[in-house]
Design a protein that fits this description.
The protein has helices spanning about 15-20, 25-30, 115-155, and strands at about 5-10, 35-40, 50-60, 60-75, 80-85, 90-100, 105-115. It has one domain: 2-Layer Sandwich (Alpha-D-Glucose-1,6-Bisphosphate, Chain A, domain 4), CATH 3.30.530. It contains three helices and seven strands; from the N terminus they run βααββββββα. It comes from Paenibacillus planticolens. This is Cell division protein. InterPro entries: COQ10_START, START-like_dom_sf.
Length: about 160
């Protein structure tokens, strides 16, 4: 079962980063390369504990749907989303936020199980784990850019 861990320092308050990470609108913008869009459940604004969102996206040239549910939330330090329907056999995505001297340490921990047994494990080794790492990193860098830009605009005002 692969586990992807990404850690970023973001020059913005923990509350800001937490809300950007659970924003449906920011998620859609950060994943534009896969044409990801919400199609059911919470489709805009900030997702809350117990809510679901169904995403439609194109990965590997195939249109797919994935439904995730927020199963844990401790504002503004942590939330967890888990797949309740979609291509993975299972996934759990933990988002952690810690206030640090000059902003926020954001840590993503994404653990998943691919479908198809041995074939899925081979796909993980050959390309899927790297693909998911890059996908999550690109999303997190988008959050970092938006958060830090908001801070600069706030300081410039």
């Amino acid at each position: 079962m692969p586990t992807i861990r990404i850690e970023l320092l973001i020059n913005a308050p923990v509350e800001t980063v937490f809300d950007l990470a659970r924003s449906i609108d920011i998620h859609a913008k950060s994943t534009a390369q896969t044409k990801e869009r919400p199609v059911a459940g919470r489709t805009s604004g900030l997702i809350e504990l117990g809510e679901t969102v169904t995403w439609e996206a194109v990965h590997f040239g195939i249109k797919q749907k994935l439904t995730a549910k927020i199963t844990e939330m401790e504002r503004p330090h942590r939330f967890v989303d888990e797949q309740v329907g979609g291509a993975f056999k299972h996934f759990r995505h933990t988002h952690e936020f810690t206030a640090v001297h000059n902003g926020t340490r954001m840590i993503d921990i994404f653990t998943y199980t691919s479908p198809l047994g041995v074939l899925g494990r081979l796909a993980d080794q050959w390309f899927l784990e790297a693909y998911m790492h890059n996908f999550l990193l690109q999303r997190n860098m988008y959050i970092k850019t938006v958060a830090e830009e908001a801070m600069r605009k706030g300081l410039d005002s």
